[in-house]
Amino acid sequence: MASRVNGLKGKVLTLDTMNPCVRRVEYAVRGPIVQRALELEQELRQGVKKPFTEVIRANIGDAHAMGQRPITFFRQVLALCVYPNLLGSPDFPEDAKKRAERILQACGGHSLGAYSISSGIQPFREDVAQYIERRDGGIPADPNNIFLSTGASDAIVTVLKLLVAGEGRARTGVLIPIPQYPLYSAALAELDAVQVDYYLDEERAWALDIAELRRALCQARDRCCPRVLCVINPGNPTGQVQTRECIEAVIRFAFEEGLFLMADEVYQDNVYAEGSQFHSFKKVLMEMGPPYATQQELASFHSVSKGYMGECGFRGGYVEVVNMDAEVQKQMGKLMSVRLCPPVPGQALVDMVERQEVLAELAAKAKLTEQVFNEAPGIRCNPVQGAMYSFPRVQLPLKAVQRAQELGLAPDMFFCLSLLEETGICVVPGSGFGQQEGTYHFRMTILPPMEKLRLLLEKLRHFYAKFTRDYS
Amino acid sequence: MASRVNGLKGKVLTLDTMNPCVRRVEYAVRGPIVQRALELEQELRQGVKKPFTEVIRANIGDAHAMGQRPITFFRQVLALCVYPNLLGSPDFPEDAKKRAERILQACGGHSLGAYSISSGIQPFREDVAQYIERRDGGIPADPNNIFLSTGASDAIVTVLKLLVAGEGRARTGVLIPIPQYPLYSAALAELDAVQVDYYLDEERAWALDIAELRRALCQARDRCCPRVLCVINPGNPTGQVQTRECIEAVIRFAFEEGLFLMADEVYQDNVYAEGSQFHSFKKVLMEMGPPYATQQELASFHSVSKGYMGECGFRGGYVEVVNMDAEVQKQMGKLMSVRLCPPVPGQALVDMVERQEVLAELAAKAKLTEQVFNEAPGIRCNPVQGAMYSFPRVQLPLKAVQRAQELGLAPDMFFCLSLLEETGICVVPGSGFGQQEGTYHFRMTILPPMEKLRLLLEKLRHFYAKFTRDYS
Question: I need a surface site. Which of A47, A91, A416, B173 has the fewest CB within 10 A?
Answer without folding.
Answer: A47
